[in-house]
Amino acid sequence: MECLKVLFLLSSVQLSRQYLLPDHVAPSHYQLRLLYDIDPSTNFSFFGVADIQLTVKKSTSKIILHAQDYMISDDKVNVVGQKDVPKVTGVKLNDTYNFLEISLDKDLEENGKYKLTIPFYGNLVKGLDGAYISSYTNRQTQKTEYLISTQFEAISARKGFPCFDEPMYKATYSIIIGHSKEYTAVSNMPLAASASENALEDYWPWDVVGKRFRKERSSFVWDQFAKSVPMSTYLVAFVVSKFSHVVSPPELSKTQFRIWARGDAIDQTSYAAKIGPQVLSYFEKWFNVSFPLPKQDMMAIPDFSAGAMENWGLITYRETALLYSDKESSFLNKERIAEVVAHELAHQWFGNLVTMKWWSDLWLNEGFATFVSSVGVSAVEPSWRADRSYAVENTLSVLSLDALESSHPVSAPLDDPKRISEIFDAISYRKGSTLIRMMLMFLGEGVFRQALHNYLMKYSYSNAEQDDLWAELTAASLRSGSLTRNITVKEVMDTWTTQTGYPILTVTRDYSDKSLTISQKRYLSLGVGRTSQAWWVPLSVLCEKDRKSESESVQWLGDTEGVTNEHRYEHGSGASEWVLFNYNMIAPYRVNYDQRNWKLLIQTLTSDQYTLIPVEGRVQLLSDAFELAWNNQLDYGMTLQLASYLKRETEYLPLYTGLSALAKIENVLKRSSEYGAFQKFIRRLLNNVYQKGGLALKRIVDGDNLNSVKLQTTVSSWACSVKIPGCEENAIDMFNDWMRTDRPDENNPIPVDLRRTVYCSAIRRGGVSLWRWALARRRASNVATSRDALQHALACSRDVWVLAQYLEWTVSDGSEVRRQDAGNVIAAVTRSATGYYVAKDFIYGRIQEISKAFNGQDRRMGGIIKTLLGQFTTKKELDEFLEWKKLNEKYLSASKIAVAQGIENARVNIEWIQRNKRTVVDKMREYSM
């Protein structure tokens, strides 16, 4: 949920010292006393005092820590010790690195214990990081209500209080928050006591505070929270609000759970209140490590930059990721909530209990939480098959992004804290998750879980890096004998985490016997690059005759095998039977076969026996075939013949995979004269499955089956996009029925799972009056997921001036678009065929305002630019961007990875147009006859 430590090597790169705090002193305990006035008339003023207990590691006459965005009372800063008391001679703030440098008249003694006191004051701002102001409209009073929330990850704790803002510096916390009695304060730990005396009186007496607040002391209360466990600064959290809460049933967990939300939305908390404690209890068993805190609060914040943040004991969420309405939220919204809740609760062990030493190993936090979320969801909603669907979706995402030369390793060297936000991406989350699943599969779940337990116990309340995890996994595997080839987990995993990319295996069969040869090299979307990279690749092989794995134990292709010489492999298939690699998607790699084996696989897929190939195997084949054809390593005729089997596919995941691959082709054709041929091909492919449910019938069939619902909604969306007869007409009819309904804000006859597609289709075909009517419904809705569906649909308009107005709102304060949603709105407009032109002009012409609006949200800026570049299909477009980029580098400085990936994607698109467009269009016309 989107600070450097010294004296250790990370990924063989020594971090640049200029960004690092010196390691002369370390905090052991913080006493934070904070006093807030949540009142716009006093500009949200606050006062604070940080008392930090320090241990001196090396004798020094300077204390350096972090502070940002408030004033320090220099004359009140002091240090006390057990012996001679050093005198503060200077207090200086370095804005470049946010270093607060405190000079002393004598050295602090090595191994000495001291208390550093820093009084500070300032004004909170409306934002999305640090300690910030959020707001919402009370639907009963129609008044604006304000609250304070925090988002300290990765390096914004320094915006809340002076601190050693790096994950290595763990300490305990005692927090006191003063606030108006109208509000409730919640923090990481339970409330211990409340008092009416000013807890800051020794540094901020009420005669000083009162002048700023213009309020009586009697209207304030000071809440004291219990002392915390040792934790990193980025996990400290507090919320001061007028929220309501519900308490989860105590039988679900021994840990008390409370779900907080706006009073108007408290009826949307029941699903989270049920699954939260269930998931936590399951994780305690799965890790065999108890949750160490007495309570767990979960809060839905109206303004929130990410999906959620795993603050220990106080998880904060975007409303769409926590609140669920039976009447207004879709099945996919429900799945998303379960996934995010499980993800954040997994962090209570991976991230909170054991924390990475430095952000280079962010993947240890995010990759584990992403993988373990599927474990948690599978436990509480077993019918969803989250273990399989999350694995497929994560792997496909990795195969797409990590095929770029501009990708980055999972364990990413970082030499500048400004770049930390860049690695909160699919590589850290999804590739990390994919690699963790890979380890579980080749080690076995029992060995894997025992190693995790040992790791968590050994490093509890401390920090670790990936080599520490490898050591525990290797030790457990040696005891069980689960790793063959006499290798260590580190040898295997370093090939996956310290180098960028993944391999493609080229499999060539000898049909005169039951053998084949395998070679490996890095796969790249541009098909260039002569790298010497190689991997330890786990091989899962399925032969046609026996429908089971070729062997019980995982076979390996070593990192020296198949590189300069082909590696020979024995298998069990006859000359007329296929062989399938990676049938269970054990690892993220691609496979290319000789033509004869491809044809044998296609022959089975396009027959009534296609289910002989397991679901994950069908996914792998579709993904590989389309990608290899894109790269001219496989004939498009063969790929489209393979894809034709989708007409009979009844499982969501292979259909999703095929359509995702086709969407890549759609993206480069949608603004061309040949788009009609693409639409006709997709109509032929989907017509049969479309007729079975969804918009074709104006209802969801088998609505309790998540994967059936996903299939129907996905197919319905595509059907309207490619103009399958009746689809848009049905959508418009359903929208018109809604418009004619009495009290449309309370009564929406459109099936909730079809609304996103119906809204977009109707707005795409409708005029400005319909767009405004939808906007009014969004404004009136009290359900965040409902507002989100309408927000997405508003970008579907084909009226240029309407889209221009919509984009204008993304940079306007107090507009219809909240700052948390602005990036998604710009991206949605950019992806549409009409909106692309409007968005491109908006981004080029208004980059300064966009940058200001997204201050502190570098990932959003990078995402916007990457989305724009992904639409390019001509060299002229790219050249124009590169010239613009030269003039606007300062706005893109914190988005270098995303911009580089976007440029590479644009080049991939342009090259495809030049090499493949004519062939593919001709083939699609041929298969549409």
Characteristic terms for this protein:
929 residues; 30 strands; disordered N terminus; eight-stranded mixed sheet; 19% strand; 40% helix
Give the percentage of residues in beta strands: 15-25%
Quaternary structure classification: single chain
Low-confidence stretches: 1-15
SSE class: alpha+beta
Reported for the largest beta sheet, the result is: 8 strands, mixed
User: Roughly what is the average pLDDT, rounded to an integer?
Assistant: 93
- Which geometry do the CA atoms define? globular
Intertermini distance: 50 Å
What would you report as the Rg, rounded to the nearest angstrom?
A: 29 Å
Helical proportion?
25-40%
How many DSSP E strands?
Answer: 30
The total of helices stands at 27
Question: Can you walk through the features of this model?
Answer:
- The protein has about 950 residues and is of the alpha+beta class.
- Strands 1, 2, 4, 5, 8, 11, 13 and 14 form an eight-stranded mixed sheet that branches.
- The longest helix is centred in the last third of the chain and has 32 residues.
Summary of the model, kept short:
The protein is α+β, with helices and mostly antiparallel strands.
